[in-house]
Specification:
The protein is mainly alpha-helical. 56% of the residues lie in helices and 5% in strands. It is elongated and about 95 Å long. It comes from Ensete ventricosum (Abyssinian banana).
Length: 303
Amino acid sequence: MGGAATVVCLQQLKGMLGLQHFTTATDLVSVVKSVFSQVHQWRWESAVLGCCFLFFLLLTRFFVSAPSYTHDWPFSRSAVNYNAGCKTAMSNVVMAIAVMITLLFLTPLFHYTPLVVLSAIIISAMLGLIDYEAAIHLWHVDKVDFCVCLGAYLGVVFVSVEIGLVIAVSISILRVLLFVARPRTTALGNIPNSMAYRRVDQYPAAQTVPGVLILRIDAPIYFANASYLRERSLTSQSGLFGGDQLVLANPGSEVMKKLSSSKILDAIGHEWIFLTVADAVAACNFMLHTCKPSDTTSCENVV
């Protein structure tokens, strides 16, 4: 909405400067080119009057408390409701009555209203729809979401609404693909005096288990991220059976179906599927302390 409001504000430069001819394009470059190509037609009286009236409107709006709400109407009426501080749906009835009275009885009074004043009123209304505080909030919360917001805004202002929408959707899809193709993998450690296992980078008190790598993958595993996960978690290993033992803790029902149908469950061993991480670690520790050097599974590599 901020981009569309900015475009509407740019279109009001025709009335503010008193221009007779103006571009029909909505992008910033076309508007600026149209404005500065007709410098000789600028009416400084209109510009000064419009700026003064706009300053008056912004100053009066500054003293009005206007809580935020989700709008359902066109821009002009939304801006009036927004700046008037409406809080309930009853404002729709009042707004409808006011619009009806204006159209039936008050329209002739606006016939001689200078175009520059109408432009100032529209600009004042549109500026209230540009939520810059939300953009600042996005910058502090999530930089990628801020890039989506900024890309959509710049696309609308400099090109068109369609291009702004395409930019926002493209960045969002790219983020999803990047997250799926490069999922976060975290090592877990045991919280002392408990059976809980948490991220070692988030909980400094978490202790890793010697000889056991507890790995959590925060995304589904499929062809797009399989190679990446293999490089991340098994960089120094040759594979599943190279002296290591793979143990699964609390896999989902769909995962178990996939493992069973692909015969991978038989390769891992049904006895290496556990309900909790604590049970899996206990079994690994038991194997590490009871295995012999001649055993097939190494005592130093249990994953």
